[in-house]
Amino acid sequence: MLQDWQNLLNPDIEFFIEKNKTLSAAALMLKSKAPQGTAMADIAVQVAARQKAAYKLPQWAATPQIIYASSLSMEQCSSQAAAQYKASLSQGATLLDLTGGMGVDCFYLAQSFQKAIHLEQQPQLSAITAHNFRQLGATHIECVCTDSLDFLEKYEGCADLIYLDPARRNDHQQKVFRLADCQPNVADLLPLLAQKTRRWLLKLSPMLDLKEALAQLPPVQAVHIVTVDNECKELLFLIDNQENTPNAAPPITAVHLRSNGQNTAQTFTWTQEAQTQCTFAPQPLAYLYEPHAGLLKAGAFRWVAAHFGLHKLHPDSHLYTSDSLVADFAGRIFRCNGLLPYDKKSIKAAIPNLKANVSIRNFPDSVAQIRKKTGLTDGGAAYVIGTTLQSGKPVLLLCEKVG
């Protein structure tokens, strides 16, 4: 919590923050005195958050006098790219955000609605978020400082969409991943959600098991797995209270949002995955493919092979191969330069500087064990991928990245 967030709007404080914007929080704390009696800890939070916002929330970073409530809020909030993707999933007259927090998701979701209500029970965070919305020009968002359950019980309308991002930390600030451990407990809200909205969007941790979540939720209309630069960030469950489709096979969209703008999205169902037949290559061919993290999280294994016209190396390796380049593959593409004997002398002959990016897919040794046995250090242009072939033989593949 900030000691005096409104004092951070003072022009002298703003000048001081701008002047020291490249310093680390530790370096700032060593300065003897902050201007205007402002706590240096408050200034350090702003400087660190602005540095992160430059790539995570560029619109916020470019907007004057945005206040960041805490380092934790900045860590937990969605990126701008992920929030904008959510905004494409629904539209209507009224949006209720039951777990408002810093307000990033609410701000972008609200752009598809005529009115939005942001609910946050921490007074300071609610006030700061209301200020930031004004700075961003989002005058149609109302910030209400209250408990979301109390608000929902008294709410007399019917929202077009209710958004929930339950807190994934317990009372000791430890991360939790199970649906029942999050706050608010979604199960407790189900009767009210059925009354107060037709559709709701639930954001959960990427660590959560998809099948476990679907078993605990009402019929899900669609699942969206959001990956940013090959890091799986969010699981989104879009639920329509009038939807009667069985939970076992909702459409799953794995979207990959990339910094270079070359975004991809694939949609499939687990029924399609179960019914898909794929072919296997006994040895790696000219090109090797590794799906992005979201596709792997989704469980699109055989489906990926059939969709992109590739061969799998092994049922459990989830690496794919082809003779001809499939340039639009949703993930990393490598040129395979052959198999490497698993010994230090052979590795040294193939990679004289012993620098390589090492990864594994269905391989008995860990990356650390491979490095220890071969003497490889991180870096360089070479990629060494440990995997298992269809025959069951573990191998090291020497590769170079394509594109």
From TrEMBL:
**Classification via InterPro entries:** PG_1098_Fer (IPR054168), SAM-dependent_MTases_sf (IPR029063), Thump-like (IPR041497)
Q: Where is the PG-1098 ferredoxin-like domain?
A: 287-329
THUMP-like domain segment(s):
331-401
Q: What is this protein called?
A: Uncharacterized protein
